[in-house]
Design goal:
This protein has two domains: about 5-240, Type I PLP-dependent aspartate aminotransferase-like (Major domain) (Aspartate Aminotransferase, domain 2, 3-Layer(aba) Sandwich), CATH 3.40.640; about 245-375, Aspartate Aminotransferase, domain 1, CATH 3.90.1150.10. The protein is about 40% helix and about 15% strand. It has 14 helices and twelve strands. The strands form two sheets. Strands 1-7-6-5-4-2-3 form a seven-stranded mixed sheet, sandwiched between helices. The protein has a five-stranded mixed sheet with strand order 8-9-12-11-10.
Amino acid sequence: MDFQTLCIHGSEKKCDSTGAVSVPIFQSATFSHPGVGQSTGYDYSRQQNPTREHLEITVARLENGIDAMAFSSGMSALTMMMELFSPGDHIIASDDLYGGSHRLFFHLSTKNGITFSLVDTSDISLIETAITPSTKAVFIETPTNPMMQVTDIAAVSRLAQKHGLLVIVDNTFLTPYFQKPLDLGADIVLHSGTKYLCGHNDTLAGFLVVKDAELSERLRFLYKTTGACISPFDSWLLIRSIKTFPIRMERQQENASRIAKWLSGHSKIKAVHYPGLESHPQYEISRRQASGFGAMISFEVKDEETARRVLERVQVIQYAESLGGVESLITYPMLQTHADVPEEQREAKGINNRLLRFSVGLEGCDDLIVDLNQAIGG
């Protein structure tokens, strides 16, 4: 079935017998049993709810997985996933991580006896060198947040299979519309559904998607045990949002491509990080493993004064955290998304007082360029 058709019709399983075109919101915490030892298939909403089930089946199909679990946030999905690992386990992760992931790994997971090696996962040899007898997984962001580095998912998956490691891919930036990590050999796909899958800056959500029945069973047990499931109403909001998801992705990418090229020619811009630029070091990998480049741009201005001026002078674009919504948002990673990453690590990756991250929305592209131009200054 075509991707756009899946987005609109989602699950083929009907939630009720009324013929409702919009999936009903089953705002119920519990469900009655027809008899002793009998079930309607729904017992308690922490385990499953008909509205959430429709959403999960939809997202699993979009990612070509066999199961998806929907969470109250992307961080709750990542936190639960870490319960797959035990004290003494070692994980290799991208060294340019979303600040929330870094905070979880180095403030909570290490407390629980899990160790991490951060490497530039766009260099496969660095991953191979970091593998130890206790390594259990490779955790990849691609493109990374915020420096937009791209990792070859298929190459990492081949290496991981040789060593019996799980491959986990945060697919938030490109989404299943542009990139399908499970098809490239990954075992688990992670999403902050708050971002493009929701797309309206009004709902928190997270997802884990898998292609293996045994892994699904393990994660489902953890899911019902930890209880970080998304609510029926928020599930319905995601179902509604996903119906327009492909159209949004196409337009936002179109805007981002134009803006990235415009920024590249601006005299006050030192560097532009966008996988769709031919100057990007992993441009060819992006073309090979994804069908698009997304709508996230990071760019470095000439000095801190210019960075702060941009944040304070934008008018159509809003200075706010998050990304992926219909509204364009600009973020200062060193003070916002990556404030908890140690300064020396931030600086080493280029996350400095001159770097801005731009989530390109659905506004008229000319309006966004005019707004950026007046904020940057001539």
